[in-house]
Prior knowledge:
heterodimer; A: alpha/beta; 9 helices; B: mainly alpha
Amino acid sequence: xxxxPLSASSMGGGxxxxxxxxDAARDCAQAGLWYEIHPENYMVAGGPRMxxxxxxxxxxxxxxxxxxxxxxxxxMPDSQHLKRLKDLADRIEPALVSEHLAWSTWxxxxxxxxxxxxxxxxxxxxxxxxxxxxxxxxxRRIAVENPTHYAVIEGHEWSELDFLGELSRRTGCxxxxxxxxxxxxxxNLGFDAADYLDRFPGDAVMEIHLAGHSTDADPxxxxxxxxxxxPVADPVWSLYERVIERIGVRPTLIERxxxxxxxDVLLEERAKAQALLDTVRVxx
Amino acid sequence: MTGAxxxxxxxxxxxxxxxxxxxxxxxxxxxxxxxxxxxxxxMKGCIDALQANYPCIERLVxxxxxxxxxxxxxxxxxxxxxRLLGYGHDFADFIDDFEPAKKLPYLANVARLDxxxxxxxxxxxxxxxxxxxxxxxxxxxxxxxxxxxQAAARWIWFPDQPAYTIWRVNxxxxxxxxxxxxxxxxxxxxxxxxxxxxxxxDAGACVLLDACARGVSLEHAVTCALDVYPGTDVxxxxxxxxxxxxxxxxxxxxxxx
Lengths: 284, 257
């Protein structure tokens, strides 16, 4: 099968792939466009989903963005899940594979969320081992995403930036920088998002995420929520510009998982990211 | 051995399910409004998945009722697999025993059909048996062939409810017929060219498919159907199943050549 060539450098602004937009997504030929999926939604024996994905893959790069490998759980990644991920990667030949600095599966139960943990030496050992096992199983480098924070966790022995940097140094993994997560976490925990981003290990960044957020339904909490249910907010666009001016162009995804608008609306948002990428000079 | 990270995860999960945690980092976390965000996100993720997997139930009972019932189910049967596409495999059994659903005695069976749709949707791909090939067989070969239902084929018989009609009209969001005959109904779901299709199925055909799935010869399968439902009209039943694409091309290759 003829496929779109694999090269992250040809990837500009991407979109999360939604089944409801399948036909439009397949037919859209804008330069630099690529799509991201949650591999869990395609770990099926067969059927139309795989056929859709194969059809999209014939004309666009695909990124696999896992949500349930549970790298920060105090156990090894589930071997069956890892095998299914490997099978999907072999079949789709994704341009990028990423996961989260979080946990979701624990003692056989799956919590559909990305859960926090104390960044201890023990956690670093465990997560480094889990990332290494994942990369060995897949035979490729993965990118690990910075999480969103809603609360102060006691017992950290590492700052998040040092933790991510050390994880990358130990395992050779890349990082996925979610600018919206930084904006939300900075608001919720009270730190400076621009300062955090200025110190983020830029060389390791393989991909950038942009998404919209919401205010908590409980106004007394004074929290921003990583809902992916709204357009990217202006302050997040500003932070994004600041990041790519410093580190250069990276494949950049517009994430939208709820209150999904028409494909044309998502394309407009994606065009905004592409326009910013097009103005950035690639650092020599 | 569980270390501090594992203890944190044990405490966190306990707290998500409303358990008390008195000390350590999770206790400190519980004192902050942010913990509710995690709890709410987990619950919303599970309920959203169930809602996506049972569209006809949501249509029959309304979104609010559905999500309230789903929350009870999620508490009892949290996901054990991150492929939420398959979450809620026993939701119909839950509805059977769910007191507020007793006024809608067909609801569990409609849920069974939603579940069969999901199973048919994600089952393995395989070529289908060519009906013309079977039709061309001489009688002695026909009796001995073993017809294997396609991987995506699902069938079910409801002896005392028109659950298939109720499901069908809700699946395509059509209005309910003015008069609904309160009799038993069956359904066959298959996947043809990547699309899940459904049709009514009589009781004899359900018995025949059960027998075929056990790997017995067609002659034996027909006998099984006639034993249970002597009135079964075998010819039209078989040609109906064949033209629906109920069988795999791998059926009895040896006897077909």
